[in-house]
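Morning!

This is the sequence you dropped in the shared folder:
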Amino acid sequence: MRPRLSILLVDDLEGKRKAVIGRLRANLSRFEVIFEEADRYESARDQLKARNFDFVILDIKIPAGGDDASEKWSRQLMRDILGGELCYPVHVFGLTAHKDLDPAVRAFYESNMFGFCQFDFESDEWALTISAKIEYLALALHYGSAYRLNSFDYDLLVLAARHKTEYDPIKRVFFGTRKTQEHPLWPGRSSYGQVSLGPKIRARVAIVCIGEAGLSPAAAIVTQGIQVLRPRVVSMLGMCAGLETKGVKIFDVLVAREAACWQEGKSSEIDGDEQFDPRPKPLKWSSGLGPYIALGIESQNEALTSILSKISKSDDYIALQKKYGDKVASLPSIKAGLIVSGSEVVSSGTIAREVLSRNRSALGLEMEIFAVYTALDVALGKRAEYVAIKGVADLADKDKRDDTQVLASTLSAEVMKTLLHGWISKQ
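The structure's back. Tokens below.
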């Protein structure tokens, strides 16, 4: 399949446009080249505003309104492009049949274009020059894009759903109170920079707040994140509900060895009764990182034990333990298993029991992990390793505990940061 290129040719002379298209198409045979034409400033501006072009070939004298062809209108089109009002092509080539150019005019175009050629009906020199440059630039972009898809830029991308109760405490764990940079794609809800994970171990970390709970927003943001940031590891952190009947307590840390959507299935009516046939399709954590985390949880290494013990002795933890009694773990434990996702907040024991009847091995439930695992499972290019870790903030019952949410999110981030240290050190 030939790479596709789109080129806008701006010239008021039809015969010249035909000659340019014919000769360039012949020299760019390895590409599928789509040419669009404009014969004046207004039509060129309209096309550059309506769609994207890879390259623009511009005569230095074009007409506008009732004016004859003039270099001021070509110059104005260049200013519109450079000012960001219109499509910003890879390059603009100047092509003119005028042999006597004012030095100031030539200087303006040569400073703003990567190519400036003298058109001649009797010669192919200009066509060879422009074609060679287009071919080089197009292939550089193509191979550069392919390389980027198969390499990593960031060590870790962290996703959090809600700002105050998840993003903010997770950010504090990784970056402390220092000011961080934010990504222009996610203004006001992203942070990135270098993070120290221990002696001589630093990682490039980005944290992005989705801004709302739910499967669809999570899928959209993780897809953007892996395309733009190319992370080596992706982790969904924050809080979740634990299922008390499976021995889960508040502030335990759940690791999603598997994720599924508890609402997937088929509803039907049989003998007047509505019945639901659950058909979840579980997805596992990534094959490289997952076994490493499983080993870390099983061995409960010194670093993990230390961080869990430290948090359990904090004033906030002790106060909440006194408030909620034996529903809070005396010492948080880390449990790996199935976490199910759905599109609704569950604060009902009846619904929690229904969720468990559909997914008998589930440890907890929340609203994003399955979408994150799905997006990563089908991502283009070299695949990131991935895992979701969430602290238990409530037990999916009528007693939703808002005061536990920040600490639950903090626990998830501390566990991930500790595990990431070991993973990065082994790569």
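Headline: The two ends are 36 Å apart (CA to CA).

More detail when I'm at my desk.
O.
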